[in-house]
Amino acid sequence: MTASALTRPGERDRLSTKIAELDWRLISLLAVIACVGAGMLYSIAGGSWTPWAAPHLIRFGGLLVAMLVLAMVHPKWWFRAAYPLYGVLLVLVLMIEFTPLGYQPAGAGAKNWLNLGFTRIQPAEFMKLGLVLALARWYHNHTAQEARWSWKLLIPAGMIGLPFLLVAKQPDLGSAMIIGLTGAAVMFMAGLSWRVIVAGAAAAVVAIPPFVMFGMHEYQRNRVLTFLDPEADPSGTGYNIIQSKIALGSGGLLGKGYGLGSQSQLEFLPERHTDFIFSTVAEEFGFVGSFTVLACYVAVILIALRIASLAHSHFGRLAAAGMTAFFALFVLINGAMVMGMAPVVGVPMPLLSYGGSSMMTVMFGFGLVLSTRVHRYAELPKGHGLF
After folding, report:
1. Shortest CA distance to 380 belongs to which of 178, 186, 136?
2. What is the C-alpha to C-alpha distance for residues 277 and 255, in angstroms, rounded to an integer?
3. Helices (H), the chain
4. 120-121 sheet: strands from edge to edge
5. CB 3.0-4.6 Å disulfide test: which of 18, 125, 128, 229 passes with 357?
6. What is the pLDDT of residues 166-217, one digit of tens each?
7. CA 297 to chain CA centroid, nearest Å
8. Which residues fall within 8 angstroms of residue 269, CB to CB, at 6 or more apart?
């Protein structure tokens, strides 16, 4: 079916038509997850809207409007901005390392913030978006054979590797992991040869032990070793995982009840408003509640992938699928982390956890996904120019 079969000529760019083309199921699910997050933040604070629940809802409301505005933007503008945006974000990441503008917040394990005077930003969060757009544009301009296996694949590999290494050096292992895995997901969806995938996976398995022993800071290495045996130091490095497992298990089938979670209410559970908020959900609402939340995430991912599959342009397909991939990675890594199946690397549960940078990244990413849905019939020209 062509675009003209849906709307008459001249009507396709009308605002009312674009609004009607939005996927309101996706928008509603995002709102539900954010509201559940606000409810849990209210509970964690002892039945108070401050300091977390009210700012969480206000931030989501503003970013929801921004997401809908971005959904109205034609993909050609995302296409033109892809390389310049990637370049600007790469410069910002470099500025953290090589200028006095980079700083490490009190209590943080990484120097990953940039003080620009008028605002403070975390460039690694936005690099995830810039990387997806840049990779989608590169693959849009290359053949399926080149995407499958070619020396030219060194270019997207370099586009992934450079920010990965810079962010890992900060050291922000969680963001570096998301950047690397998101880039790998885009290469896979673009048609990368299975031989390359298997070889890369094997190389990663071989490289992990020496990287853990010699390439990590001591506190990061302790996190990995603690993940393997948290009971070895139950009151030290293993404390977080042990308390999270207690919260998950104590919820049972239906949970202890809203506001009655002992691990979170009595503050045994660390970072209960950010990294370990899902443990609070499981403790207060049990298996049924946590399964329902995960079902909402799965529904978001499936709807977004369906939107990506409908795009006529290769750029649109890969950009929307890439944005969905990094959202899915947030969910998978945080879920594995709180269950003790992965090291604690500071990855929040998207829209559920408290935090501005991660929420902004997710909402901007879904703005592009919705833009792909609204403009799914748009065709983009091939071209290797910067703009």
Report:
1. 136
2. 15
3. 15-21, 24-44, 53-71, 75-98, 123-140, 144-148, 154-169, 173-189, 194-210, 218-228, 239-250, 262-265, 277-310, 314-338, 356-374
4. 102-103, 113-115, 120-121
5. 125
6. 998 887 888 899 999 999 999 999 999 888 888 888 888 888 778 777 777 7
7. 12
8. 243, 244, 247, 263, 276, 279, 280, 283
Task: Give the residue ranges of DSSP H helices in 311-374.
Answer: 314-338, 356-374
Strand 113-115 with 102-103, pairing: antiparallel
Q: Environment class of residue 289 by beta-carbon count within 10 Å: exposed (0-12), middle (13-18) or buried (19+)? A: buried
Two tokens at 54?
A: 């009210």
Residues present in the chain in total? 387
pTM over 0.85: yes
CA 287 from centre of chain: 24
- DSSP character string of 135-170: HHHHHHTS-HHHHHS-GGGHHHHHHHHHHHHHHHHT
pLDDT in tens, 256-288: 999 888 888 877 888 888 889 999 999 999 999
DSSP 230: G
Residues 90, 123: Cα–Cα separation, whole Å: 8
Amino acid, res. 321: A
Amino acid at 161: G
Q: CA 123 to CA 112: how far, in whole Å? A: 8
d(CA 244, CA 286): 13
